[in-house]
Amino acid sequence: MKSRKNSDPKTNQKRLFMRMKSPTAFGSARRFDSASFMNVPPEMARRDAAYHCFSAFFRNADLSRKKRAERCLIYERILKLLAVIEEKSEFILNSDIIEKRNLENADSLAFVRLLRKYFTILDNLASACNEEAAKGQTEKTASLVTGEFFERLEPIFMQNEEVLTAAVKALLTEKHELLQSQQAQRCKLFSKSDSERYERAYALYAEYYANLENI
Question: Does 77 map to a domain?
């Protein structure tokens, strides 16, 4: 029987590196040293900061005195912001599935997608207020988009918009503490370097998204 030769330690390390599923197994016991995980903390910070700014703005916003065009613009900007939040949530969830960090779950993504549906409805309700009907009242001309029918529809749309706005505000308020708690729990799983990247990115994006005009 042939005796086994002692192999070079560097060769053994190289073989170990080639066999492992994640670079976190090479030369470190900390799971959060993975190169593939480097982008997750700042992307999560962007998602969290964007949601915080959106939620804080909408929960305190008084839209009742704003004109239709102003409300539509607000809804459009919020929808763009929610699209960013959804995109980052998908990225984090996919990374979490690969890396098995237990930092994210499908529930968060489903919640964001539900909010996007609500604001799409709000945008549509505000857009359905017919400005052409008001023009027709002064011009006194026959038109397919003027008449008593449209005059009756407009207050119905406005009432439904107000009801849904109040419901979404209540939803955001109800889930606020839970989302804050989940954010804090996720951050506890970061390494020191991950926490530093998260905090720097969060401060930057929180300042940027504080103004909806940046969306």
Answer: yes
